[in-house]
Design a protein that fits this description.
Layout lengths: L47 H4 L4 E3 L6 E3 L1 E2 L4 E2 L13 E6 L13 H4 L3 E5 L11 E4 L6 E2 L10 E6 L5 H5 L8 E4 L23 H17 L12 H27 L7 H9 L7
Parallel strand pairs: 5-6, 5-9, 7-9, 7-10, 8-10
Antiparallel strand pairs: 1-2, 3-4
Helix pairs in contact: 5-6
Length: 283
């Protein structure tokens, strides 16, 4: 999603994929990028229920075995108890029907807050124009920190690939809505976006919503942030850490194979130390 920066440089949407429709890591998850979410400062609920065997279960609606939640029915597995985040407005996420729900960072958000609603294009409700903002960096968009939030009850967020935004934005339910944008941030999302390598402000849908909430808080409430919206990142951060751990395991294994195979002169202890410190990542 590009929700900030130069309006029109890249349409918003779920991070785009390679020409063959595949995804790959643009960088190791721990590689620092300016203005990313500071994971250490987040006040998140415990991941305990996600880390035990009870996190896998049968979806009570479709009957399929799922890990953590069912991405099709948007239901938690019986062994998972997710936090419930109170939002200052309803976040309406508009998804493209051809996008895989299993790969969307937005799907689990409805499980984390009663204030998040999922809609599939083109079946969209009619939003009250005078009470709704569209998160999109159009030429007429205003910075979220400088926007008048008085009377705003809905914020619409488009969750799709960059080239799918055109038809969605022309939908009668969205055309004419006031647009708001967030300031440039770096992303921690693990899916590669080859069309946005050098464009600032490209983040996942989940990150965009969190940044918008933070900008709203800073502009509207004008007090020290108390972490009230952090749990909207609960699943996102859990998956990020899970993928980071696996990435480091692969790096350690690659280093071990180099030593065992008589490759370059490698100090395994030094490599392992650098991996743990986040200084080395997979190629």
């Amino acid at each position: 999603v590009q929700m900030s920066g130069d309006p029109g440089a890249l349409p918003s949407g779920r991070p785009c994929v390679s020409k063959r429709g595949r995804t790959r890591a643009a960088q190791a998850p721990n590689k620092p990028v300016e203005n990313q979410i500071d994971l250490e400062s987040l006040r998140l609920s415990s991941f305990e229920c996600l880390e035990n065997d009870a996190s896998r279960g049968i979806c009570p609606q479709c009957g399929h075995s799922r890990k953590y939640y069912c991405h099709e029915c948007v239901l938690l597995t019986p062994g998972v108890a997710a936090p419930d985040v109170a939002l200052p407005f309803t976040v309406d996420i508009v998804r493209h029907p051809k996008e895989k729900s299993s790969k969307s960072s937005a799907i689990p958000l409805q499980l984390l807050s009663q204030g998040v609603k999922l809609h599939t294009f083109p079946e969209l409700p009619v939003f009250p124009a005078d009470q709704t903002l569209l998160l999109f960096p159009s030429e007429a968009s205003t910075d979220a920190r400088e926007t008048d939030w008085t009377g705003v009850t809905h914020v619409v967020v488009v969750d799709c690939t960059w080239f799918q935004t055109g038809p969605i934005l022309k939908h009668q339910s969205l055309a004419g809505l006031r647009c708001v944008r967030i300031q440039d941030r770096g992303s921690r999302f693990w899916r590669y976006c080859h069309k946005a390598e050098n464009i600032p402000g490209v983040v996942s849908t989940t990150e965009a919503i969190y940044f918008l909430l933070r900008d709203f808080f800073d502009a509207h409430l004008k007090q020290a942030y108390d972490g009230r919206y952090d749990d909207i990142l609960w699943f996102f951060v859990f998956f990020f850490k899970l993928i980071s751990a696996k990435s480091q395991e692969r790096s350690a294994k690659r280093a071990r194979l180099m030593v065992e195979g008589g490759g370059a002169d490698v100090d395994l202890e030094e490599l392992t130390s650098k991996i743990r410190a986040g200084e080395l990542h997979p190629a």
